[in-house]
Amino acid sequence: MRYLPKSPADREAMLKAIGVRSMDDLFAPIPAEYRLSGDLNIPRQMAESEIVDWFKLRAKENAEGYTSFLGAGAYFHYRPVIIDALVQRGEFLTSYTPYQAEFAQGTLQAIFEFQTMISELTGMDLANASMYDGSTGAAEAVMMACRITGRSGAVIARSVHPEYREVLSTYATHQGIPVKTIGFAESGRIDAKELQQAVTDQTACVLIQSPNFFGTVEDVEAAAEIAHAKGALLVVSIAEAASLGIIEPPRTADIVSMEAQSFGVPLGFGGPYCGVLATKEKFVRQMPGRLAGQTVDKKGKRGFVLTLATREQHIRREKATSNICTNQALVALMVNIFMTVYGKVGLRELAKQNLAKAAYAADQFGKQAKVLFGGAPRFNEFVVQTSEDPYAINSRLLGHKIVGGLPLERLYPELGHAALWCCTELTTRSMIDTAVGLVAESERAVRSMKEAEEEVTL
Amino acid sequence: MKHMTRKATRHISQNENLIFEKSSPGKAAWRLPPLDVPEVDAAKLLGKQERKDLGDLPEVSEIEIIRHFTRLSTWNYAIDLGMFPLGSCTMKYNPRVNEFVSRIEGLANGHPYQPMKISQGALRIIKTLSECLIEITGMDAITLQPAAGAHGELTGLLMVRAYHESKGNPRKKVLIPDSAHGTNPATAAMVGYAVENLKSNERGMVDVAALAAQMNEDVAALMVTNPNTLGVFEQEIHKIAELMHAKGGLLYMDGANMNALVGKARPGEFGVDVMHLNLHKTFSTPHGGGGPGSGPVAVKKILEPFLPKPTVISKPDGTLAFDYDRPQSVGRVRAFYGNFGMFIRALAYIFANGPDGLRQTTEDAVLNANYIRKGLEGVYDLPYDTPSMHEVVFSDKIQSKKGVRTMDLAKRLIDYGFHPYTTAFPLIVSGALMIEPTESEPKEELDLFIEAMKSMAEEVEEDAQFVLEAPHNTRVSRLDETQAARKPVLRWRPEHP
After folding, report:
1. Angle between helix B120-137 and B340-376 (nearest 10)
2. Which A-chain residues 179-208 have CB contacts (< 8 A) with chain B?
3. Residue A451 has what pLDDT?
4. Confidence of residue A316 (pLDDT cuts 50, 70, 90)
5. CB contact under 8 A, B492 and A92
6. What span, in angstroms and rounded, lies between the C-alpha atoms of B59 and B30?
7. Hey, are the CB atoms on A406 and B50 less than 8 Å from each other?
8. Of A83, A301, A333, B311, which one is least surrounded by beta carbons within 10 A?
């Protein structure tokens, strides 16, 4: 076996040194009836070339070469090549959680820089070292709000990513956190009146997403006012991190839960991604997850350590803020490098291109079909309502090697034949024009069919 | 320097400031293509929602970024540099072909919502890995959705709860041995269970008599790690399972130490009802400085209806699809389908090994741990002389007489060019040194480690103060953790306001 660094003679010598006759002696602690006698029924040992071929075949079955208008919590942005060059350095890739600080200053300083940039981008005082993803991060943020307020109810907007809401419901069920859901108004934003009615002095927090699932930018300040008036916290979930380059961050929120996948993390069929929590300074001791902090060594030299560990499971056990242990460190490093590459000016220009592409596309789609939620600003996603079922339109688009917008019928049946379209800096004008052309054809076909039907009835 | 071994030599490493301290306006490491659609007026589109300033984000060039992160990387220790004997963490070699195949276009760029028709490759990977892991664990069904080990525990206990609820009573308690990892009790609390401690016996195993006394119809499950955190196989595991099942309880196995069992024994055969695996331990996906992980949960038939949704099913036409129609499911524990990139890596590892390679891997892991145990017996105190599987736990009993504790020894071990073992865990051993070499170490590296550990023990006798002041050879000396926690500085801020 090519990963095992021992010759048969080494093994013999070691067995002899230990004082046993055979390998079987070492496994004697396992009762004989549970010791496997034969081979596991799994594929035989493969050569590296065979492994590569097997996965290349899977990639071929998996839509290689398609471009897409899909977003909905997973965004296709350009990834600068230096990201993979740097994260594949063995000293990052094959190191452990930096508990032994003197031997892990590289990882620790990188986390400290990550925490700084995330705080800056989200408009919060500080951020943690990462959470699994945006969905579990949002659920943890709600639990954190419950600990801070000593209350147990949550109010959540229906315009939060449907899968984030499902995860919250899984987490909340056994913590005794009742969850109330509020709807959206014609603008696509949360229904402020409904929110006002839903928030009581039992509410721990209000959870909204901005830009929300439909791509609409919420009025965070208004939501914060409503929540704060009743002593509740405002948690803002951000699924499209790139929006922060051009959209005002949710400064009036108390906790921000962000999915940072947009920043240099491959789509990878849904993971691994990079969640992160950011919050106000006064709430830090209720925050879950690892934190790197600055300190000095014995000679007064600057260094970094993991800190405030008394929040964590390895110290507090059942009284910890969360059970989280392993996080998304290497993915956070990708995010870190991405933020460093684009920086203060680039992130704004990148966001501006996204804004321009989506504005153009929404404009073009709007000439052929109905683009919903025009009453509020949006970032890079929008909802298009068509006469025909979007699945049918999408299957024609597939013929052009284009994946159309996400049909919303299963998630939001009240929107009818609607789909969520996303444009990033990688979406080309010709892709947009092709998609709009097919939607136009579809609309024309439905119209002429209707006219034909009307003629028959006449 | 006192005793030094042949393992490491001091060498120059570059200093490097925070990236913010290198920033100056006008430097850039990016360029966007020309916009092929009309420019927009952000102020007009966004109104008061337009962001004008990105604060203290850096402005630097590409070469500076390359040097910045490369320099930082050289301050880390890593498996690629040498032995990383952290107990219960299974720091094994992370094969590079895993990284290569996970970056193949089409897998790396697959969108989680792309139509099933063009997702067959990804679904096939999920299905194949699921089948392999079911075979390896001897269980009946599996979910790959959990993002890490602790997340797997959460998922497993949610299923335990759903199972008991389906019988009319969720029950109140989860039993957890005092040797368990901290995530176990923290997880039980998240699922709404009270935690009841279970004492270990004098051999470091679950005290079966105590379990019999504590087990009743209020207990939902026992969470046991096997081999446990002492590296000891729970020899009465079947009795433990019988005791649990007789009173309607379930047996949860924390699979953190599965590297001692793969290809040699299957938890499904010794009475385990539900267990999680850590793909980033047993199945070689990289730890990456703390993550990402992946924590699949395997279950017996009785728990299958409660698996998170969606699951992957084969359709009559032979294609694969996600199944969302699972009325008894505990729901979703994560958006999308889990850390898919880790599935690719774990499957590549299984392919590279095959049944014979996996068995040999486990054998070598156990061989290495026992070789270290033999080499250090008498030099360090062995609190439990029960046979070791893949890891061995010593204590600092001998050295603490000179005032040197496990953490001090760990810091001195750094000077010798090794990453420390796990310190002060499990909690049932005072001053524990928990050593897990994994199968990835050649005999020469193990000999160097034993030599270093012995040399350190001599230093304690000769000059304890020298060891207490370690590390001596690192970029920074021992860091002030108290100050870090008392007045937390968790981000950089510019010096002038």
Report:
1. 30
2. none
3. 85
4. confident
5. no
6. 10
7. no
8. A301
For chain B of 497 residues, list the mean pLDDT of each consecutive stretch of 10.
78 95 96 97 95 95 98 97 96 98 95 95 98 98 97 97 97 95 93 94 94 97 96 95 97 97 98 98 97 97 98 96 96 97 98 98 98 98 96 97 97 96 92 98 97 97 96 95 94 82
Is A337 within 8 Å of B69 when comparing Cβ atoms? yes
B380, B457 contact by CB (below 8 A): yes
A4, A40, A72 member nearest B360 (Cβ): A4
Structural domain A343-457, CATH architecture: Alpha-Beta Complex (3.90)
| Predicted confidence band of residue A1 (pLDDT cuts 50, 70, 90) | very high
Between residues 310 and 349 of chain A, which touch chain B (CB distance below 8 Å)?
310, 312-320, 322-333, 337, 339-349
Which pLDDT does position A207 carry in this prediction?
98
Does the beta-carbon distance from A175 to B192 stay under 8 Å? yes
What residues contact residue A88 under an 8 Å CB cut-off, 6+ apart?
A: B99
Question: Which pTM does this prediction carry?
Answer: 0.97
Architecture of domain B98-350: 3-Layer(aba) Sandwich (3.40)
Question: CB–CB of A303 and B479 under 8 A?
Answer: yes
What burial class does residue A192 get, using C-beta atoms within 10 Å of its C-beta: 0-12 exposed, 13-18 middle, 19+ buried? middle
Q: Which residues contact B252 (CB under 8 A, 6 or more apart)?
A: B153, B156, B157, B160, B174, B221, B222, B223, B224, B272, B273, B274, B275
Alpha-carbon distance B69 to nearest alpha carbon in chain A (angstroms): 7
DSSP string spanning A226-295? HHHHTT-EEEEEES-GGGGGTBPP-TT-SEEEEE-TTTT---GGG-S--EEEEE-GGGGGG--S--EEEE
Amino acid making up residue A341? V
Q: Give the domain A82-339 fold.
A: Aspartate Aminotransferase; domain 2 (3.40.640)
Q: Please state, as a whole number, how many other Cβ atoms lie within 10 Å of the Cβ of residue A197.
A: 13
Is A140 in contact with A131 (CB distance < 8 Å)?
yes
- Give me the residue spans of the domains in chain A: 82-339, 343-457
Does residue A186 register a pLDDT over 90? yes
A17 chain-B contacts, CB cut-off 8 A? 371, 374-375
Q: Report residue A314's pLDDT band, with 50, 70 and 90 as the boundaries.
A: confident
Domain ranges of chain B: 19-73, 98-350, 362-483
Interface test with A, best of B21, B24, B37, B164 (most A CBs within 10 A): B37
Query: Which residue of A lies nearest to B332 if distances are taken between CA atoms?
Result: A167
Cβ-based contacts of B208 with chain A (< 8 Å) = none
CA nearest neighbour of B295 among B203, B432, B158: B158
Q: Token pair for residue B300?
A: 């017996």
What pLDDT is attached to residue B215? Answer: 97
Question: Cβ contact (<8 Å) for B340 and A267?
Answer: no
CATH fold of B362-483 reads Aspartate Aminotransferase, domain 1 (3.90.1150)
Determine if residue B228 is left, alpha or beta; phi over 0 gives left, psi from -120 to 50 gives alpha, anything else beta.
Answer: beta
